[in-house]
Write a structure and sequence with these properties.
The protein has helices spanning about 15-20, 25-35, 40, 50-55, 60-80, 85-95, 100-110, 115-130, 140-150, 165-170, 200-205, 220-240, 245-260, 260-265, 270-275, 280-295, 300-320, 325-345, 365-380, 385-410, 420-440, 450-465, 470-480; strands at about 350, 360-365. The protein is an all-alpha fold and about 500 residues long. Strands 1-2 form a two-stranded antiparallel sheet.
Length: about 500
Amino acid sequence: MTDDPRQTRRLPETLDEFQQAEGHPDFRVDVERIRFSPYYSRLSAVTQVISQAGAGLAVHNRLTHSIKVAAVARAIATHLSTRTDERGRIVGELGGAHPVVVQAASAAHDLGHPPFGHLGEQTLDRLARTRFGLQEGFEGNAQTYRILTRLDEHDRPGVGLNLTAAVRAAVLKYPWRRGEGGARRGGASKFNFYAIDEQDARGALSAYPLIEPGQQTVECSIMDISDDIAYSLHDLDDFYRAGLLNPATLSAEFRTWHRELATLRASDVAALAADSRMPGSSLELLWRRLKEKDAWIADPDAFSEAVAKVKTEVIDGLVAEPFDGSLASERTLARFTSGWIARLQSSVEVHRHPHIRCGHVSLNRQAWHEVAVLKFLHERFILERPDLTVYQRGQASVLERLVDGFTAWLDDPRDARRAPRRLIDLVELSTDDYRRLRKDAPELVESRTDADLDALARGRGIIDYVASLTDAQAISLDALLAGRTERLWDAGQGL
């Protein structure tokens, strides 16, 4: 066993002979446990933003996104971990930037995403609170931590994948319970562990005594900004390939904002919101949000430069030529994406005492604005599309029917024993967790009776189960529970 607290697992263990012979350090073992996890495999069939079924196999899913986040993050960590200047000294003092830890955290960071992307996350959050009275609801980041430390198992019960403290801490982008974020990055709506998993999370963070409460570890902040970089560029890749970006519409937004900037700046937020469909208004609303939430870094000149760069390189450059599937189009897209990633990777800064909304490792001011404008393209021109909204409402209905259907099944005393074995297991795990929480921290469960506690646990178990499905499994199970399919033996395969 090592004396390094970062390499401490929840339970001691001896690496097998093969691992010892190959010289595998503990962090490398963690990477492989995550990669071999069925929760990791399922990410290949979970929507990123637009589904493969609707746009073809070229688009990213949660697995390909995670792989690319890991590549970006490992490059940043390798660079920072080998520096011998002030930046390298700060990184070392705060616990280091081990490339393999960052790689493991990047591979794991989206494990908690439910079917149908962020729409599924919002739906399960609402159902957890309204159907089951789970005040913490559902959050993808908190679900990730729960999977790693409780729901998934390697070779022994009760300790999840039994990962090192370093890797567990590195996935804690929002290291607090629901509602405790305050003014920090992500605010009150984002959090990284439920009350039933808090003790384990606090134990992982204790390996980093110089990291202030509520702050990410260095390795976590590297993963976090790499996620932003990959998300802003690889989703743009998807939308370009799928032909969803209209050059004329994009150009009108950016051109009008620049031409009518004085008028837009004189308008109040309510007026801009009322005219958000008018070209230029949405881009100005983005600036107002940045200035309000992140006045510590938001800068009008940097924002204007970012708008100009995105207009030149994305709208007037990449998108002006439609993607036609040719080798020339592939080369153009590859050069565009790799060039932006390389520049953003080289734009990182290290802070010994970062702002409350910033990590120890972050993008510099100009790059931060550019990523914000790239994300704006998705939010304004993809996520707000009526055709996507109609599709998402249907997906939300699937999840709602599943939650209600499994609840009714477990409520049926004559048939509850025939519910999916995995569902029953997850309810039992949750029951153990809530009873332990009542014993260790009764104030967090409001001293509920056994019946109340068991009802909460059942709700959490059902949410855990539905969240673990792929998009296709959710749709197939919905059809099975409604009696709308005759594909009995393969519709719910592996459940």
